[in-house]
Amino acid sequence: MKKLFLPLLENGRRFFCSHSHMFVPANRPMLEEELNTLQNFLRQAGRLFVMTGAGVSTESGIPDYRSEKVGLYARTDHRPIQYQEFLKSADRRQKYWARNFVAWPQFSSFQPNICHEVLAQWEREGRISWLVTQNVDALHTKAGSRRVTELHGCSHRVHCLNCSYEMTRSDMQKLITEFNPDWNIESVDIAPDGDVQLKDEQVKDFKVPPCPNCEGVLKPEIIFFGDNVARSTVNFVFEKIRECDAVLLLGTSLYIYSGYRFVLAAHEQKKPIGAVNIGKIRGDNLLDFQINARCGKVFERLKITSAKKIIC
Q1: Cys staple from 249: which of 219, 234, 275, 306, with CB 3.0 to 4.6 Å?
Q2: Active-site option among 152, 156, 159, 267
Q3: Does residue 165 sit in the same domain as residue 265?
Q4: CA of 156: how far to CAs of 76, 103, 122, 284, in Å?
Q5: Is 129 known to sit in a ligand binding site?
Q6: How far apart are CA 32 and CA 298, in angstroms?
Q7: 200-204, 224-228, 306-310 — which is least confidently predicted?
């Protein structure tokens, strides 16, 4: 397949898709040549492996970390908690759970967008062999996808680090409320990892509930920065790469090695690799093509052209 890389800037002018969400970076419409390339790629892929990143969830209203001008790092000095911080510091756990508690009503209400919905439909049609997401927002499962590996876990589940106790994040919200009946703080500055920014004085009276089973430390089932994806999960995804015919990357820069290693494996196995992402992708020399466009707009075009073929 011919390598195709079309720039973010065309004729010295930056394009913006209409109705872009505030967390979606500057982008241009997909060109007809790109649509044809993507359609040919999808037609030739009998067993498609899909990997999604934050660029899929931004269109549902969830910010990402690194996008130019609109990512969390570009807009604020807020940084996500590190795994070792959470383990070793009761103060850091207090701050984390306070911020997460405030953010949860909004974060849990985010809904799938056209990307999630079309991918779920492709799974039902047997077009996707497996889907791996680097996101922790559960939007793929909300949309109906079942053949999914949540590489970095899911914010909708909580477990104890000391025993095998598990609970839903919604139940954790109720438990926190019971421990903090008079604590009431509001914030609208949502972060990608499902928390908000709060000042130290706002969280000083917040109480973190222990595990109801053993009084151990409760933690969301997500991979914090500085932690590692379980080896069993990594091996499982490598197996899914071996089983597929082609790999499609959606909304990911592959900045984190946990996802990049699977693209390296696919390339070594000579699997065709395509990508839809606004901005540079790590290891772009491994790709057969990249479309520098908004995922949602690309899927709208795919949906429209598919509908036209059915009608014809």
Answers
A1: 275
A2: 152
A3: no
A4: 25, 13, 24, 33
A5: no
A6: 11
A7: 306-310
